[in-house]
Write a structure and sequence with these properties.
Blueprint (H helix, E strand, L loop, with lengths): L3 E5 L3 H13 L3 E5 L2 H11 L3 E5 L7 H11 L3 E6 L4 H9 L4 E4 L4 H25 E4 L2 E4 L4 E4 L2 E4 L6
Helix pairs in contact: 1-5, 2-3
Length: 160
């Protein structure tokens, strides 16, 4: 199954460009043309990455970002023609994972999406490799500890 990307973009030409590039790269893509439509589509579509325009016709992209950052575990890539350092810092401060300035190349867009997905995969591997559950007891491999009900016991090499 292809990774999913939700594009929240009101400009039809930019949305078409983003969709075409990402579909050619093998992603399943859905486009929402308003902030409200994007917020509605996100839970059902369950994207791995969300491309979010800052200037939307109904809701500020920054407000959409805040809402998504609190309700979704998808990576959020803000897309904007606003390119001042304050604009970038504001977007990142509200929960965006990255910020790309318009205009951008298709190669850059695909590389950023791939970067998010590599990070997600590394995170999944480390979560799976670092802990082992047995009922309510957890073996934390990285720290050689055994945890149960909020108590942690350090294990010797032989015990581990």
């Amino acid at each position: 199954m292809a990774d999913r990307v939700l594009i929240i973009e009101d400009d039809p030409e930019i949305a078409y460009f983003e969709r075409t590039i990402l579909e050619r790269a093998g992603y399943e893509v859905k486009v929402a043309t308003t902030g409200a439509a994007g917020l509605e589509a996100e839970p059902e579509f369950a994207p791995a990455v969300i491309l979010l325009d800052v200037e939307l016709p109904d809701i500020s992209g920054l407000d959409v970002c805040t809402s998504l950052a609190n309700s979704s575990d998808a990576f959020i890539l803000m897309v904007s023609a606003h390119s001042t350092e304050n604009d970038v810092l504001k977007g990142l401060g509200l929960g965006a994972d990255d910020y790309v300035r318009k205009p951008f190349s298709g190669n850059e867009l695909v590389a950023r999406v791939q970067s998010f997905l590599r990070r997600r995969e590394r995170s999944r591997k480390s979560e799976g490799d670092g802990r082992l559950m047995a009922g309510s007891t957890e073996l934390v491999r990285d720290f050689h500890t055994l945890e149960n009900d909020g108590h942690s016991v350090s294990l010797t090499a032989l015990e581990f």
